[in-house]
Specification:
Order of helices and strands: EEHEHHEHEEHEEEHEEHEHH
Distance between the termini: 25 Å
Strand content: 15-25%
CATH superfamily: NAD(P)-binding Rossmann-like Domain
Largest sheet: 4 strands, parallel
Number of strands: 12
CATH class: Alpha Beta
Number of helices: 9
Structural class: alpha/beta
CATH topology: Rossmann fold
Amino acid sequence: MTFHRDAVPGGVPLDLADHDAIARVVGEARPDIVVVAAADAFVERCEREPVATRAVNVEALRRIADAAPNALLVVFSSEYVFDGRSGPYAEDDPVSPINEYGRQKVDVERIARDRADHLILRVSGVYGWSKARTNFVTQLVDKLRARERFTVPSDQLITPTPAPDLARAVVELVDLGARGTYHAAGPEILERPEFARRAAAAFGLDAGLLDLMPTADLGLKAPRPLRAGLRTEILRRSLGHGLAPSAEALAAMREREPAR
């Protein structure tokens, strides 16, 4: 296991911007399976700084793939590979990204597909506890607990994906010998305001502090695919089950909240 900013017991430090270090670390490990979960997932930064973020999100993956030519390559993609005009989307629907982050993820998928032994996992709206507290639910909880208002896009769909369930699904898919592209997302496609209200209710917070606003009025540089959503029938068929629905996953998240 490698890490960058936050040390992991027994882990090896690795900066994905250091391509020579990638070749050295991966070459020394000689892995059978490489799971590339690290990325710069800040959509606005990708739009503003395409060269710098592409070096981490795309070129680093290319170096990893070259350094481990015989390993199973597991990569994470996004619903942002779609334009959001005709969702929900299945795995074999044509991609048509409308922002730089989506374009980078399309290139990530191409790198993975250049080798026979690959597993591509498209996700949407991943949420759960993290030290950075940057996902949609943790930001909502922190704002509402502080009695501050929280702005929610009123016209976007989301396929909420609980991070602990996603991690377990990745392990299950690898153990099953799965290959190809999977939509590894939650079982519900929701309007963002509805998901925000469910999150507020799960944590006993005031949904009256939510401000709904069209995406076009949010002042974002990167366009968003508004009516996306990921279909997950293939995942459920392969595993024999899906990820937890939002009510169950949010309740579990509240029960497992770490001390601050």
